[in-house]
Amino acid sequence: MPELTDDERPSAPPREAKPFPAKARDWNDDHPAVINGRSESRKEAQPGKTGSRRFHSSERGPIYGALDLGTNNCRLLLARPSRRGFRVVDAFSRIIRLGEGVSQTGRLSDAAMRRTIDALRVCAAKLGRNGVERARCVATEACRVASNGREFLYRVEREVGLKLEVLDRETEAALAVSGCASLIDARADYVLVFDIGGGSSELIWLDASSARTSAVSQDSARRNGAKPDIKAWTSLPVGVVTLAERFGGHHVTAESFEEMVAHVLSLIRPFEALHGFNAMANGGTVHLLGTSGTVTTVAGIHLGLKRYDRQRVDGCWLDIDEIQSVVYGLLSRTYEQRVAEPCIGHERADLVLAGCAILEAILRTWSAERLRVADRGLREGILATLMSEDGVYRAGRRRRRQRSG
């Protein structure tokens, strides 16, 4: 393992950030901010390793922060408002597996809490060093369900100085939609936004046609960052970590994969039975929008990437048969072969098929011809919300991208 930089050492004192010479791009409808033509690499986001980028923007203005402490990952995004959304000035991502074992024991383990506190110390240093004016730090499913979740967050506040709020599931779903809504096809009538997490999965059905009452109102809605109406949502008590722990993730057979899919289907069916979206959307234009590591992994593999490239993945379109080709191709591989896949790696090889099973259950439940991939979500939704509340956020104008594959 390479030696950690001062920025990444949990005990390192804060130091002045040295700006990169390159310019950061706007975070807009199509591209994340990148530096020197590169984007945040998933390959670096592993326990003991850090997916961390520091960006430089010549523009002055307040810096906002969003910290998402999930079941599997700890992610931080710092940005300042720009003319077309916001510009990223710093970012951090590390796999910490905070929810490891919670589905069996009901408690956060000591090892998981230590890993997480180490990552949060890095986040606290970045928040302080960048002079963040306003931030929202949130925790999700692992801290919601663990019996010692609240106790752990009190410990974080004492030892790290960060106060994290536990998001309820409805707020988490709404923020995920806010973070990726700019990727919704303006011509669609209905859109299913889903976020496959580590401990839970959010499903949100949107009525996009309601925002299309006239050309004038549509243009106004885009300028003001208006979002489609949420028709219904649910949070499934299953994610990649909990599903892999229940059915196994290292050696997955066709039979065990079908068992995983069947389990997820049993959780989805009551939601569809209650709202009847298959009938409602019949004859309309429907597409799926996935914001999770599972769909970005599938996209990266489909694109044949030798190294995960966020700029190519975020916003790309996949046909459903292309997705299923990747899913069942992964199912035919051994654990070691999945480890060797550049878009998966050692730290996610035991979770990827659990995510694929959740994705497959979604595809079997609702008919759609295509899916758009979002490598954005909760953090971006938090930033947009904070900036909107302060009256400094302007949604970027939509630019269409060509479909991939």
In the predicted model, the low-confidence regions spanning at least 5 consecutive residues are 1-50, 52-58, 221-225, 397-405
Gyration radius over CA: 20 Å
Number of strands: 13
Query: What is the SS-derived class?
Result: alpha/beta
Give a concise summary:
With 405 residues, the chain is α/β, with parallel strands linked by helices. The protein has helices at residues 102-105, 110-129, 141-145, 149-159, 169-180, 215-223, 240-247, 254-275, 277-280, 293-302, 310-313, 320-331, 335-340, 352-365, 378-389, and strands spanning 26-27, 51-54, 64-69, 73-82, 85-95, 134-139, 165-166, 190-196, 201-207, 229-236, 286-290, 317-319, 370-373.
Keywords:
405 residues; alpha/beta; six-stranded mixed sheet; 38% helix; 19% strand; disordered N terminus
Task: Provide a descriptive summary of the structure in words.
With 405 residues, the protein is an alpha/beta fold. The chain has 15 helices and 13 strands. It has helices at 102-105, 110-129, 141-145, 149-159, 169-180, 215-223, 240-247, 254-275, 277-280, 293-302, 310-313, 320-331, 335-340, 352-365, 378-389, and strands at residues 26-27, 51-54, 64-69, 73-82, 85-95, 134-139, 165-166, 190-196, 201-207, 229-236, 286-290, 317-319, 370-373. The strands form two sheets. Strands 1, 2, 3, 4, 5, 6 and 7 form a seven-stranded mixed β-sheet that branches. Strands 10-9-8-11-13-12 form a six-stranded mixed β-sheet, with helices on both faces. Strand 3 and strand 4 form a beta hairpin. Helix 8 packs across helix 14 (352-365) and helix 12 (320-331) runs antiparallel to helix 14 (352-365).
